[in-house]
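Quick note —
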Amino acid sequence: MTALASRETVVTPSAPVRATWHRPALAVLLLGTAVLYLWGLGASGWANAFYSAAAQAGSQSWKALFFGSSDAANAITVDKTPAALWVMSLSARLFGVNAWSVLVPQALMGVGSVWLLHATVRRTSGPAAGLVAGLVLALTPAAALMFRFNNPDALLVLLLVAAAYCVVRAAEKASPRWLALAGVAVGFGFLAKMLQAFLVLPAFALAYLVAAPVPLGKRLLHLLGALLSTVAAAGWYLVVVALWPAADRPFIGGSQTNSLWELVFGYNGFGRITGDEVGSVGGGAGRGWGSTGLTRLFGTEMAGGIAWLLPAALLALGAGLWFTRSAPRTDRSRTALLLWGGWLVVTALVFSYMGGIIHPYYTVALAPPIAALVGTAAVQLWRLRSRPAASGLLSGGVALTALTAYLVLAGSTWLAPTILVGGLLATVALFFAAQLTRWAATAVAVLALVVTLSGTGAYTLATASAPHSGAIPSAGPSSGFGGGRGGGPGSLLSTTTPGASLTSLLQQDASHYTWTAATVLSNAAAGYQLASGAPVMAVGGFNGTDPYPTLAQFQQYVASGRIHYFLGEGMTMQGSSGSDAAQQIAEWVAEHYQSSTVDGVTVYDLTTAN
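Predicted structure written out below.
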């Protein structure tokens, strides 16, 4: 947007601007973010017990930590690559297995993401833009949700923002080293959440290819080196798992062939795009994951987490690209627009049209580019407010944001009409801000900032103040503001919390068995395992449709005295495809062993046959 300025206008400097107010302001931002993400964190308990149980297993077994096993006896892994679990497991080893040791690392990742985003935007647009971008990220509901929860998304966002910082540094002086570091960060992002990490690669490559100050041949060579570093950082783990003898490692959860490659490119890969996910309990457009299309991110499930500033970010992107169309190839403002805009557009389009499993919290991946675009545009346009085009765009962005907040909140709180009225006042005042006195203009800027952040900020505070648990959390309060907070049927998506008698039973003689119990579905197993502290086999994995163990394998485990109890009566929800081994096992147990009821749970003692 620097093309709006006259030749005398000072544009982005070659090095980050130093300002006396910058460091204190940054300290306040980071401290406030830490309080927001850490306060009352323990109220969520184990949060996603599926991952908490795996962290517990990793704190007890180094093999379980490396593979991301659901239990310390290494029966089956979670259905993700385990980088996020490595962090949680190491924390649990250091500070014990508890809710805080699992959740505090996520909150710290949130603070780190805000700091890194600020640093990245600051290099291209100055300290004020960096601070605004960091503030917007901190006050994004989806970010507050995920940085107070133990899903892999927190680590993914941190690594992708770190990669963006490296790309910006690389583009400044055509540094292959910084570009390779960006590739390493994205590669480790893959180890957190697989192929989703690669959605940023087109934007990163385009930004460097356009802006790096060296001939085209060198730019292409540098990009090739970065690609190789990405492949190395992501691929080493795939190779190790593939070469490891299958009999000496856990079954790969989420796969049908005990293959991490299948998990990466199938169930957690292209299956998410096409909806063809073998073993899934739903999926496909119109078959459990909502309608697809450009309006998906503004629908009732997604909007509360991310939609607040999305229209303003798109406006900033379009206007910025137009106004920098004649800028030099290496112009930093356009480099930033290509990087953040490409990240936003590619990821948003994938989320909008993917036909497989998608959850509202995925949208946290959109928070950094939205924040960066809004922060950059707000500061640039404010500096150029004497020009009608700049003041008009600034007014339009505030109006769009106020209208978006009103539509998201409509009918649920007094805040909706308040934001709309405040937005209209700020919109008009901004258009004439250049004619106002300095103090009056400052007051208008403060009003615009408050209006812009009121909706997303209120929703973020509501998200942070409510406990979240289960497999599918969503942003927002537990009541009010319209919209819920996730959950799910039976024990597929929620965790079974055993009573004291059942917990005592599972702990009794647990050391004499490889698994103190087995039960169908990972979330059910997680609750028993976290309560007892002993390994519990998750028969059939997360969905109950993984072919592990087979009936023959389970019978062999029972015959050799490796499993003490079988809990529950089998499947609570059938998948649309995959293996029925879990159902076969449940039926075989019910037929051959006598049951009792403990704390409302059906218990089969596998050491005593009928």
